[in-house]
Please model this.
Amino acid sequence: MIQFKGKDYIEDDEYNPFVNRNVAKPNSNLGTLIHLIKGSLATGILAMPLAFKLGGLAFGLAASIAVCLLYVYCVHLLVGTSQKACRQNRIPVLGFAETAEVVFANGPPSVRPYSKLAKNYINWMLLIHSLLTTCLFQIFVASSLRDVVNNQQQIEWGTLVYVALVTIPMVFITQIRHLRYLVPFSAVANVLMITAFGITLYFLLNGDGPVSFAGRNLGPDWTQLPLFFSTVLYAIQGIRYVLPIENDMRHPQNFLGFRGVVVQAIALLTVLYNVTGFFGYLRYGDDVKATVTLNLPTENGVAESTRLLAGLAVLFSMGLCFYVPMDIIWRWLENRIPPAKRNITQISMRFGILLVLTAITMGVPDLVPFVGFAGSFCSGNLVVLIPVVLDLVFRWPTQDFGRFRWILVTDCVLAVFGAFLLVTGTYASVRNIVAIYQ
Model:
């Protein structure tokens, strides 16, 4: 067993992946915490009042806390399974898709032929989720700048103009390739978003007239329940960053556990999400918009600043958002590119993909249905279903399910919930998207 004492350690015959990792530019615990917070603290927090509109005040509060706890549990499943697979196969580090490949390859005989399929499926899920989120972020930043600048300068530039303007700084931000160099961007983004959150909360509590429970639903509209969970899962969408961030840690043994970096990050995010959702719906009721900053008074300069701050926060997080899909695509291409041409290929690849995403962004007319789609189709897969399936497949050969097989029962219940969310939430989201284009 390895005992960590700074840089010194004592090693026996058991393989420890943490010691055998060779990370060129590792992140500290603080840098990891900043990235984890930034990975989830984006436009989703501003959509939480919309989630509470769908779920009601009482149910929304309880269910949102439950979803955050579920998220922590699933992160522990995912990272724990990856670490155990590394130890079992004497591999220092595994990504999300590589974890699935190794787990399936060593699982029950019936699933072993599907190891490559599992790897490719997760890679495509990560790509779809990350690239769709990039488009949503572009829309959000461009819309935020449009609302502020047009209102303050009395001009009438369209959203497409601002999408083009936002793309200019994104060209440079998305060229950053190492998580360590993205820490300052994530730190600034966190400060800007928390400042916007503080100003928003002030207006939620001190708006025109006192807040009232009159006309506010306490329970959910059951037909909208899948969209409620989809929206909350979209808000807590950082699952795709978890393994890349953990893999780049200087002390990865501090990632999990009751006092681990994950618990610290999600504890803060749970408070921020629920305060924003609860008081946002309490203040604006059924008039709450896709992002609550759009409900704030446009004639007030301080209220207007929240849109600008939130937009800049998301802009600074674009590098982190781009990290996962570029890492996946580059691993597909790297060995096919001569070493002398890899740098220019990286630059061209990132620039070209950004231009394609910008063209897609310019064709999106509405944000709300795509938030639900990203939450149900992508997060339903990545946050719940896949970590549970990987845990089941890894434990199956040894039947390591605990006393009374409680782990098996828990995983099966969560798998049913993830499948329900995936099917019903995706159906509802696609129906809404189709209705917009008709």
In short: DSSP finds 17 helices and two strands in the chain.
